Amino acid sequence: MAQGFFITGTDTGIGKTWSTLALMQYYQNQGKTVLGMKPIASGCEWQEGQLKNEDALLIHEQASIELPYQAVNPYAFELAVSPHIAAAESGVEIELAHIVDQYRNLAKMADVVLVEGVGGWLVPLNEFDVVADLAKQLALPVIVVVGVRLGCINQAKLTFDAIEQAGCKCYGWIASCVEKDMQKLDENIATISKATPVPLLAIFPFLETMDQKMLAKKITK
Ligand SMILES: Nc1ncnc2c1ncn2[C@@H]1O[C@H](COP(=O)(O)OP(=O)(O)O)[C@@H](O)[C@H]1O
Ligand SMILES: [Mg+2]
Hints:
Structural class: alpha/beta
Bound molecules: adenosine-5'-diphosphate, magnesium ion
Distance between the termini: 21 Å
Number of helices: 9
Oligomer: single chain
Number of strands: 10
Strand content: 15-25%
Strand order of the largest sheet: 2-7-1-8-9-10
């Protein structure tokens, strides 16, 4: 079985996908076969008769083995709204057991599988489950991507606490510098580092365009 990781973050739009791609590249640089999953994506467009999501397509493309799109992204919704609302709108119920099955299939094929969550840690997926429940059922160590911007210290601490409360293991965190000229950037990262025993895996600098090869080199653990 593959080594697996679950990627969550402090919010939506803070660098989970870029971090997932960089981590995939990092393990590929070590000669490993790497697959990625974006099990639930809201905000999809029709392409060749299928709903497809931009993040999931990037993860699909970065994979070491060519997979059908649906293996990477089993739940694709057109509306860019919270997944439980997007799913209800499409008349679909997100079933965690289905995602776990799909994950296990991928885990048989590769050395490493990275699973990108959706939104933050407590985003609802259906009437009962939130992202934390998915991470728990997958039983994967969690990597937290912190979008470094004003407010992120609080968001990071809340996320680390909630992961611990859920009984999940936090493998590490990534400082994702999503703002061009963030004031007191280093101080923010240092404050979060001090507040948690979870290791800092990488600081991803602000980039005008995505470059996973460059970001992969920033991963130190
Ligand atoms: N290191 C970075 N430097 C500059 N912009 C970034 C960086 N990481 C993310 N972004 C910006 O944030 C957007 C959302 O990133 P993404 O990885 O898709 O976030 P998420 O998966 O958390 O929604 C990107 O399209 C990009 O504009
Ligand atoms: Mg994403």
